[in-house]
Amino acid sequence: MTTAVHAPAHLEVRGLGHKFALQTILEAIDLDVTSGEVVALVGPSGCGKTTLLHLCAGLMPVRTGQIISSFNNPACMFQQPRLLPWKSTLDNIALGLKAAGTGRDERTRRARMLGLQTGLAHEDLGKFPHQLSGGMQSRVALARALAIMPDLLLLDEPFSALDIGLKAELYALLLHHLNTCSLGVLMITHDLMEAIRLSDTILVMAPSPGRIVHRFRIDLPAMQRDDAFVYKMTAELLQDSAVRTSFRLAPIKSELLTRQELPC
Ligand SMILES: Nc1ncnc2c1ncn2[C@@H]1O[C@H](COP(=O)(O)OP(=O)(O)OP(=O)(O)O)[C@@H](O)[C@H]1O
């Protein structure tokens, strides 16, 4: 008996551009995400990260360039949890399963398991969104995204509103899913440390128009990155002039000195 070996799924973005009215928001974007890979988009506010993610999610039509994807089951998680206020936590988590036609018993079982895995308590599962804190709502949103067993996750700053302990918990949960399900992930973050902790490739964007100005590859598997590695790598990236320019940070002193030393 032979076992079929599936080629890894792939998201391929080539020459992507986007305009809102006459304003060019994105220009010449090329990127790739393969199963099992986490790609982080970092860059200043307004450089077009969310627009890029929405184009990849198929939420907006592509007019310039192309996006080709062989992922079958993408899931999105946005900055706002976007829960349905009239549904319980459990039903919110199970929403995608219901849409996919999963029977009630099975979707309740899976939603309950994921709710508990994301750190919700049994009694939270019966509550409505307005009875949950912002952090709990984010857990529900993550559980809802994972419930459909996606092969691609598109994440728009999913952890930005969470405290440091909760972030660490959800990072661990996400990494566990990445390892066990070989998910592809394209995530937006403002947090360079978060990008270094979770991703294999970091794409640094600059604004006006939004474009990728630097690509970093981190070869050490995410599970093996400890705090010391993350701090060291963050410090290194913050020395990079493309990163500093993108985040509108002042040039480092040595660059200033070099400039002052230049002959007039
Ligand atoms: N629907 C829209 N119509 C017109 N302009 C828009 C629309 N959505 C976004 N923009 C503009 O496109 C630019 C990029 O916005 P986008 O939300 O993609 O940036 P971002 O990098 O994700 O920002 P942030 O990090 O603050 O979320 C901004 O100038 C924004 O004002």
TrEMBL record:
Keywords of this entry: ATP-binding, Cell membrane, Membrane, Nucleotide-binding, Transport
InterPro entries linked to this entry: AAA+_ATPase, ABC_transporter-like_ATP-bd, ABC_transporter-like_CS, ABC_transporter_ATP-bind, P-loop_NTPase
MF terms in GO: ATP binding; ATP hydrolysis activity
Record has Cell membrane as a keyword: yes
Cell membrane recorded as keyword: yes
ABC transporter domain segment(s): 11-232
Transmembrane segments: none
Similarity comment: Belongs to the ABC transporter superfamily.
Protein name: ATPase component ABC-type nitrate transport system
Source species of the chain: Nitrosomonas europaea (strain ATCC 19718 / CIP 103999 / KCTC 2705 / NBRC 14298)
